[in-house]
Design brief:
Layout: H1 3-17, E1 26-27, E2 31-37, E3 43-48, E4 50-53, E5 64-77, E6 87-99, E7 105-108, E8 112-116
Antiparallel strand pairs: 1-2, 2-3, 3-5, 4-5, 5-6, 6-7, 6-8
């Protein structure tokens, strides 16, 4: 395999690992970031040292996203649909799985749930 073929294969493999509509980048102290919308449309932000989709395919289909290492999941909390944002629910864990089809988040290991107020 020549270098250009290896590069093309690497680009295809990398592209299949990224969830739809997601910006995944290496920023901060070795963390990867991912943004997604839950099935109800609520935004959720993920950060971890490793983010990988289960059974990646060339055509996007809902999958399980595995997050490992310093996992941080942040989502807005509203008391009613008409109220403005009051705070964020933040889940910290050693590992977590996110089901793209159902929106279920399953944290594991050392798990802590906190709330953050929005920064003005």
């Amino acid at each position: 395999m020549n270098i250009s073929t290896a590069f093309a294969v690497g680009v295809i493999v990398t592209a299949t690992l990224l969830p739809r509509g997601t910006a995944q980048q290496n920023a901060g102290p070795g963390l990867l970031y991912m943004s997604e919308r839950l099935p109800n449309g609520a935004p959720v932000q993920f950060a971890a040292t490793s983010i990988a989709r289960e059974a990646p395919t060339l055509n996007w289909t809902p999958s399980i996203v595995h997050l490992k290492g310093a996992v941080r999941i942040r989502m807005p909390v509203h008391t009613t649909q008409t109220e403005s944002l009051h705070m964020y629910l933040v889940v910290h864990a050693d590992e977590a799985d996110y089901d793209e089809q159902t929106g279920e988040i399953r944290p594991r290991g050392n798990v802590q749930v906190t709330f953050e107020r929005p920064k003005n």
